[in-house]
Design goal:
The protein has helices at 47-55, 82-90, 112-117; strands at residues 39-44, 77-81. By secondary structure, the protein is an alpha+beta fold. Strands 1-2 form a two-stranded antiparallel sheet.
Length: 123
């Protein structure tokens, strides 16, 4: 397996391990053939985004203990589907992102210039 790269062409960094995120639940916004949603954008969620995504049928704020999911609160980092982040962008509620932890596959949906406009240092 080749080393995953971020949108800057560097080694993909960890997005978040508390709560544990990523399609593979390894803290990284990695993707693969089974990840139909392309969970590749490392975002720092906001209240506006959580309300937006819940209204579209993806409730990320309600805890689901059966899936070991604590529910997200504003400020948490999470690997979002690139298409959902783009939807939020178009609606004016895109949460800020960490470029170093956002997988290069996001570039298939959003340009690097747009991603850079919404980047924050999540360190």
């Amino acid at each position: 397996m080749t080393e995953a790269k971020n949108v800057l062409g560097q080694k993909l960094e960890i997005c978040c391990t508390s709560p544990m995120t990523g399609f593979y639940r390894n803290g990284m916004c990695e993707t693969g053939a089974q990840d139909f949603g392309s969970h590749v954008v490392c975002a720092q969620v906001t209240q506006e985004f959580l309300e937006f995504t819940k209204a579209r049928g993806n409730d990320l704020s309600t805890p689901m203990p059966m899936y070991d999911f604590p529910g997200l609160k504003p400020g948490d980092r999470w690997c979002l589907c690139a298409s959902r982040w783009k939807e939020a962008l178009d609606a004016g509620v895109a949460p800020p992102i960490n470029l170093a932890a956002t997988h290069e596959a996001a570039l298939k949906v959003v340009s690097l210039e747009v991603l850079k406009e919404h980047s924050v240092d999540l360190a």
